[in-house]
Amino acid sequence: MLGETFGAHDVPVQIVDEEALLIVGSRCAHTPLLLIGDSSVALTGNLAPRQYEVSRQLREGGPIRALLALSGAQSLVIDWIPAATAA
After folding, report:
1. pLDDT tens digit sequence for 38-54
2. What's the CA gap between 38 and 46, in Å, rounded?
3. N or C: which end of the chain has fewer CB within 10 A?
């Protein structure tokens, strides 16, 4: 969690390579922000399977949903198109 998320609306959620988590977090100008570190991103370079799993857990429940609920954010924004491909 970056910044004050408790009570915040439209808090962005990003999935990032677990090893780059601190680097990505230090570069983020937008706060609050929730980062989910995933070790498989570096191995495959493919976010799609993780995005599917995060989406499934947000709908049906699971550890990721529970963790995001603990942030206290009132609403989340999840951008499923990576910035590099959106440009």
Report:
1. 887 767 777 777 788 88
2. 11
3. C
